[in-house]
Amino acid sequence: KGRFSHSQKFTMGMAIAALSVFVAARLELMRKAVPVLSETSNCAPPGVGMSDMQGAWMMLPFFLMGVAEIYTQPTLLHYAYSKSPASMRTLAMAASFFIAAVSSALFALLVSALGPYMPNDLNHGHLEYGYYINLALGGIFLVPFLSVMRDDGH
């Protein structure tokens, strides 16, 4: 048995994930504050200029999210596996991966709903709104999950 309980590991992972999203939102606000270069972007529609900020800054939130996944995903898989009867463990794992896919689809819906705030020229949009909504949704879903884990003795 490790130093941290399953709920502690999951909570640490979610906290690191929240930090990752907060850092990404902050980087977006910083990017919008820097001057737009006269060079056009190769990955945006014609005529959209690049911001004078290195894209390498995005490695920080990606790294943090990777660390967060190290804490959350094995914990979720262990929880689903250990609480399932032996005959249902394969189905439990498949359901876990299906739920992960559904969360990606929900994110795609969120991006579609925020379309008016995320135009092709991000210098005129509010990409940070999506980050803030993700933070709120993560907090909302964390509470019932931890409640279930607590009731289950974790």
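The record above closes out task 2.4. Task 2.5 opens with a second protein, given below.
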Amino acid sequence: GAVDGGLNIPHSDKRFPGYDKEAKELDGEIHKKYIFGGHVAEYMELLEEEDPDRYQSQFAKFIEKEIEGDALQEIYQKAHEAIREDPEYTPTDKLDTYPKINEQVPKTYAERKATIAAKKAAMKAALEAAGGDDDDDDEEDED
């Protein structure tokens, strides 16, 4: 974060990953692992082995850019070096328009009401169809 980037911000080591409450000291190796994305790399490897489908969806951008968990530390080191070389903020060019995320056309009030009415009718028909079968079963159980 900001402290790692060299800003002098009052803080306590107790808030950082790697702080041991019992020993009351900060483990630098664990803290360094978190700074350089080691915990993310471990999670990536775990998901890849345990649940490949979720790995594919959760890390789709990483896969698209051919980034593996082992490369994260190197990527973070390069980013930190680049920040130290030129810490000045340079704004990026903004686009006039951005692609729409949700291409659905909003429904009118009447369309929303009609959709709800159709869903209610379908649910009512399903309940009536299921309801007729249940009555017969109850009568047989009483005999």
